[in-house]
Specification:
OB fold (Dihydrolipoamide Acetyltransferase, E2P); alpha+beta; Heat Shock Protein 90
């Protein structure tokens, strides 16, 4: 490849402009003679060490290593600047002023950051910026995303296996030619089960959809004259988006972003600065729940406000798009669509008058389903249970809700659901029956039971969803159990 990056950078580092800017910056600070020497030494070291690094890794006919080196250099400078900037702020608060030498070092680093930034591809700079500003949460979120992908893949695998078993049963019935009303009923049940299994496994949290948008954005930055950042509304992360809707929203976001970059953002950093805007175009993204099972994805930008967006693909019939522009300020895209906000849940039963009373617990709170032989318990509303040497609380919903049983003794507990609250507390729920993993449509409603926060429609009936956190508070005495009678 043609050699140019190394020469361009070295020319910039040795240019009269950077020397003049550096001297101007020094003259604006009340530096002592000793500070002047220290700042000169620091700045010269930074420039010369970068030049030396590029010369060492660049061969006569290949400067690919220089390209690979630059993101590391930018992150090094940026993280050092963040450290000094924090130090300056605390000096100003605790001492009433910032040391001039530290201000000079910060300004020198800023000039080097801007210089290196010119030669970084926009997509690389985007990821470097995210890593430098908040490295631990950023890396942690990548790991959490990987974990969620594994969970989704696992759900699909389990659902797929159960679907195959259902088809094997149908295949066997066909082989025996059991074509009668009983078979037809069974087919209806199998088809409904298959639909539920697959739809339950193929959904994505809204926050993961935002991660997908960031990847689309990073891939589009090569076409953008200025940098763009996405700020998400994390309050929407409990919403689950079905796979087919995710695909459509991804296509729509990519299509919208291309038209935004082409038609409705400033053509240069200088143009944004003249408009009194931040250096980076700000995109605000969120999904909000509406009525009748509808949702809205709202995307705001602070570009030129001249976007007349039309999708370049066919939208589903029940989707609606609204576009609003404010010239010079930005635009807002609203996509109204029908979806589901139900996350995968475990469906189980507790006997009341010998009839199963159905409950559902969000799968995200379920740690493990235990066999009765794995648990040693006492028969109380709230008692202690021993699970493989681990002692934890046990909650018996039938006793807590004062359910009746005609048979004496009471029917055996079939399983224990080990759950974890959002604060990390682990406890067991005793149940008579575990059914399966389900999903449905939420139906908010009033409940006299504090720990019932919602309902889902399951096979024609409303089934209560247990709020694990509130259930623990109920049995800990933060809610009055007498209200449950």
């Amino acid at each position: 490849m043609a050699l140019q990056l190394k020469e361009l950078l070295i020319t910039d580092l040795k240019s009269e402009k950077i020397a003049t800017d550096f001297c101007t910056m020094k003259s604006s600070l009340p530096l002592s003679a000793e500070d002047h020497v220290s700042l000169d030494t620091y700045f010269n070291y930074k420039c010369n060490s970068l030049i030396e690094s590029m010369q060492d890794v660049c061969s006569d006919d290949d400067e690919s290593e220089v390209h690979r080196l630059l993101p590391h250099v930018w992150i090094e400078y940026r993280m050092e600047w963040i450290r000094y900037n924090a130090q300056m702020q605390y000096q100003n608060v605790t001492q009433g002023q910032t040391k001039p030498l530290l201000m000079g070092i910060g300004a020198a680093l800023s000039s080097l950051i801007n210089l290196v930034e010119k030669y970084l591809p926009s997509d690389e700079l985007y990821w470097c910026t995210k890593l430098a500003y908040d490295p631990i949460p950023y890396m942690s979120s990548r790991m959490q995303l990987t974990s969620r992908i594994v969970d989704i893949a696992g759900n699909i695998g389990v659902a797929g296996h159960q679907v195959i078993e259902q088809f094997i049963q149908v295949q066997e019935s066909l082989r025996l030619q059991l074509l009668n009303s009983e078979f037809e009923d069974k087919m209806e049940t199998v088809i409904e089960d298959i639909k539920n299994l697959l739809s339950a496994s193929m959904a994505l949290p809204a926050d993961d959809l935002a991660n997908s948008f960031e990847m689309i954005l990073a891939n589009s930055l090569k076409e953008s004259p200025v940098q763009i950042v996405v700020n998400r509304d994390l309050s929407s992360d409990e919403i689950q988006i079905p796979a087919e809707t995710v695909h459509g929203l991804n296509l729509l976001f990519e299509s919208w972003l291309k038209q935004l970059i082409k038609n409705s953002i400033e053509t240069s950093l200088e143009q944004r600065q003249l408009s009194g805007k931040t250096d980076h175009v700000q995109i605000q993204w969120k999904i909000v729940a509406g009525s009748s099972g509808r949702f809205a994805m709202i995307v705001n930008d602070d570009g030129c406000g001249t976007l007349n967006y039309t999708p370049d693909f066919n939208l589903p019939q029940d989707w609606r798009i609204e576009m609003e522009n404010t010239i010079g300020k930005g635009s807002q895209l609203t996509i109204n669509f029908k979806s589901s906000n139900i996350i995968p849940m475990i469906h189980f039963g507790v006997l009341n008058n010998d009839q199963p009373f159905h409950f559902i617990v969000p799968l995200s709170h379920v740690v493990q389903i235990l066999e009765p032989t794995q648990v040693v318990v006492r028969n109380d509303i709230l008692s202690l249970a021993n699970v493989n040497g681990e002692v934890m609380s046990l909650i018996d919903l039938a006793v807590l809700l004062k359910f009746q049983h005609s048979a004496k003794p009471r029917p055996e507990i079939k399983a224990y659901v080990k759950v974890k609250t959002t604060l990390g507390t682990v406890f067991l729920i005793a149940v008579e029956e575990i059914y399966n993993q389900v999903r449905g449509t939420t139906r908010s409603g009033q409940s006299g039971t504090p720990f019932i926060e919602d309902y889902i429609l399951l096979q024609g009936r409303l089934v209560p969803v247990i709020n694990v956190d509130i259930l623990k508070e109920v049995v800990d005495g933060k809610f009055s159990v007498s209200k449950l009678a």
